[in-house]
Write a structure and sequence with these properties.
- The chain is α+β, with helices and mostly antiparallel strands.
- It has 2 domains: about 55 residues, R-elafin, CATH 4.10.75; about 100 residues, Sandwich (Immunoglobulin-like), CATH 2.60.40.10.
């Protein structure tokens, strides 16, 4: 068994190795309370204090954002108070990617920060690896897909084998999670492109075009 952990402080589930990703997707989609506190209304930006009912629980907000009420509505806001929490694992840093084949990569990261305390007994840490991607000759951040859970690891590294599509741009991020919640995601990795049929097509196209151009000139 993997053990119990959660993205939010009040939701934990026991999962097996075969159900890692499906269980986490379901956990993240269910109602739960995320760690941290809603910011003081006096420090809200005009965008945060918009007159809108945008959520009804923390689980409806992306990433670490909490569902917070204010004078004019209910919106998702980044929580405060996470930096001082010693019962949450530190945010992974220095995410490195090593690509060996078109569909085989190794991810490594480090935990740097405050001393992590396991006084609550919820200290088993799981690393949630997410990816987003696009296909095309150029990397355009505006065209990337939404972040999707790709892997769950118990150690500060992961190997993704046969899970990447050829000819795609990829970017990864990692969150450390325990039974009390998470402090958030690492900085996204550098974008990289897998080799595949798309590159072969482009090479073939321009090579033939160059040959035809030479034939016309001669």
């Amino acid at each position: 068994m993997i053990g119990e952990f959660s993205f939010g402080a009040s939701k934990s589930r026991t999962i097996s190795h075969g159900d890692n990703e499906n269980c986490i997707e379901n956990c993240l989609a269910s109602n739960y309370s995320k760690p941290g506190y809603c910011p003081d209304t006096a420090f809200m930006s005009p965008f945060e204090a918009v007159c809108l009912i945008a959520c009804d629980s923390d689980s409806r907000c992306p990433d670490l954002a909490k569902c917070c009420s204010h004078d004019c509505g209910v919106t998702c806001m980044h929580p405060v108070g996470l930096d001082n929490r010693t019962d949450l694992p530190p945010i992974p840093q220095n995410l490195q990617i090593r690509q060996q084949k078109s569909n085989l990569i190794h991810l490594n990261w480090r935990n740097i920060g405050h001393v992590y305390s396991n006084v609550s007994g919820n200290g088993d840490v799981r690393y949630l690896v997410e990816e987003r991607h696009l296909i095309g000759p150029r990397y355009l951040e505006s065209r990337l897909s939404s972040w999707t859970v790709r892997h769950v690891s118990t150690k500060p590294h992961a190997t993704l084998r046969g899970r990447l599509k050829t000819g795609h741009w990829y970017q990864f991020r990692v969150a450390a999670i325990n039974g009390n919640g998470s402090k958030g995601y690492s900085q996204p990795s550098r974008p990289f492109k897998t080799k595949g049929d798309y590159q072969k097509f482009v090479t073939y196209f321009y090579r033939n075009r160059f040959v035809r151009f030479k034939q016309i000139r001669t």
